[in-house]
């Protein structure tokens, strides 16, 4: 519960939390200048996926979790992994050097642009990346999948919950904010006045 207002009339804000959201259509966004992906996430245990298309299309970017090996994208872990198919036929890959802590909320922001590649922030701090596994950054392939998922899909597990997901085109600042139907409700409490 986010409480604001006076001692007599507090206002409450309830945030919805989810573990799966399907059928996110991103075909209307222009990613020619890249994207920004934002979410708050809490992992219950090591995971294999987080944000990807449902139909295994090869022309779609992925944001997943993996283990410390960094070269094993389907081994469960807590390291963020980014895969960007490129117009030139290559794939840009980046993996965080540090992992997320289990059972703690983290704010993540993943940025990609065709000149600088990826920048990832965890809890507002830029984190180190290993992007030596794939090709150099360049223009990404246009997204043709209308059925992205945040959560488990294609036999890969996401073990946790998330909220406040937003995908933004860096070309024109258009964005998608998936509707989180939510299977649990998170109550957030900020700056409670002792007089309440």
Q: How do you describe this structure in short?
A:
This protein is mostly beta strands and 196 residues long.
Please explain how this structure is put together.
Helices cover 0% and strands 42% of the residues. It is built from no helices and 17 strands. The protein starts with a strand and ends in a 9-residue tail after the last strand. The radius of gyration is 18 Å and the shape is globular. A hairpin with a 2-residue loop joins β11 and β12. The chain has strands at residues 4-5, 10-11, 14-17, 20-24, 35-43, 51-53, 62-66, 79-85, 91-96, 105-113, 117-122, 125-126, 129-130, 148-151, 160-169, 175-176, 184-187.
What sort of overall outline do the alpha carbons produce when their principal axes are compared? globular
- Give me the secondary-structure category: mainly beta
Topology as a string of helices (H) and strands (E): EEEEEEEEEEEEEEEEE
Residue runs with pLDDT of under 50 for 5 or more positions = 1-6, 8-14, 182-196
Main beta sheet strand tally, sense and closure: 6 strands, antiparallel
> Can you count the helices?
0
Report the strand count: 17
Descriptors:
mainly beta, six-stranded antiparallel beta sheet, four-stranded antiparallel beta sheet, 17 strands, disordered N terminus, disordered C terminus
Please render the helix and strand layout as text:
Blueprint (H helix, E strand, L loop, with lengths): L3 E2 L4 E2 L2 E4 L2 E5 L10 E9 L7 E3 L8 E5 L12 E7 L5 E6 L8 E9 L3 E6 L2 E2 L2 E2 L17 E4 L8 E10 L5 E2 L7 E4 L9
Antiparallel strand pairs: 1-2, 3-17, 4-14, 5-10, 5-15, 6-14, 7-8, 8-9, 9-13, 10-11, 11-12, 15-16
């Amino acid at each position: 519960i986010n409480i604001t207002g006076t001692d007599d009339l507090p206002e409450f804000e309830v945030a919805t939390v989810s573990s799966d959201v399907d059928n996110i259509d991103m075909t209307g966004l222009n990613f020619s200048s890249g994207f920004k992906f934002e979410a708050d996430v809490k992992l219950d245990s090591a995971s294999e996926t987080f944000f990807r298309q449902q139909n295994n299309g090869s022309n779609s970017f992925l944001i997943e979790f993996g283990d410390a090996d960094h070269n094993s994208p389907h081994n469960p872990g807590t390291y963020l992994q980014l895969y960007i198919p490129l117009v030139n036929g290559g794939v840009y890959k980046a993996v965080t050097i540090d992992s997320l802590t289990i059972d703690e909320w983290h704010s993540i922001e993943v940025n990609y642009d065709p000149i600088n590649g990826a920048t990832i922030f965890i809890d507002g701090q830029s984190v180190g990346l290993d992007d030596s596994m794939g090709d150099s950054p360049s223009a990404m392939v246009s997204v043709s999948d209308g059925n992205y998922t945040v959560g488990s899909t294609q036999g890969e597990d996401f073990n946790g919950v998330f909220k406040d997901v937003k995908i933004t085109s860096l070309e024109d600042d258009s964005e998608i904010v998936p509707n989180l139907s939510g299977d649990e409700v998170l109550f957030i409490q900020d700056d409670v006045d002792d007089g309440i």
